[in-house]
Amino acid sequence: MTGIDYDLMLLLGEIFGILIIASVIGGILAFRYSGERNNATIDNLNARIRSWWMMYIICVLAIAVGPVGAVILFAVMSFFALREFITLTPTRRSDHEALSWCFFVFMPVQYVLVGMQWYGLFSVFIPVYVFLFLPARTALVGDTTHFLERITKIQWGMMVTVFAISHAPALLMLQIPEYKHQNIKLLLFLMIVVQMSDVLQYVFGKLFGKHPIVPKLSPNKTVEGFVGGILASVLLGMSMFWVTPFSPWVAGLMSLAITLMGFIGGLCMSAIKRDSGIKDFGGIIAGHGGMLDRIDSLCFAAPIFFHLTRYFYT
After folding, report:
1. Which region is the signal sequence (predicted)?
2. Torsion of CA 273, 279, 281, 284, to 10 degrees
């Protein structure tokens, strides 16, 4: 399902080239401003570039292993994202057993279902069975303090960090006519558009941003950054149509859906952080914050992209 062909090697080569260019630019900037005190932005940039290299290497290794590697990679991402989410939204001691079920039973089962390509159960396991199990098990403990609030946090954490994210590797299970053994490129298309949308919105916002979209929530997100980043990401997606089963225009529309949902996902996660009074969910990825900071856009984009592709192309 994920054979490494010429197009895939070309795509990975292009990403490698971009990272080389970014590393050279970062090195030049660091050398040029090495004597200045206020070079925190450059240090942060180089930290991000190093993290991108690490993520690129991990992705290449996952691709080399095959579908199982991709499933394991996203399962690990979900684990760390869920841990960050639960840490940020504290629960009570009486919730520990329910959380153990989430981390060590429900999350692995969800990704096993993805690996088995069992769409019928994968699509309802967490939204139905886990959703009903968690409040039932917690109620049996007898702790009613903030019961609804506690259960809602756990349920929402499972939905966002596990169920939603698992739709990314689930792209590998789609049976698309005349696109057999190429689904890994569809997954890379999603990841590249999502990540570049975040980067481009940041760049356009820094260069031209004047009007915040939601000042109280995320003052750094501007109308100019949003419009410029979305348009540039759509054009990027259209230019990558050759690695997808889409035409250029459909690739652009898919990119638009991905970037819009990614933007909404980022806003929702920013609302959680703002409410908690923190800047990042964690510090696991240098220059990027926590795992959930890196995949907040993917949480909302992956399910929409998966179902749009499944509905129209399978």
Report:
1. none
2. 170
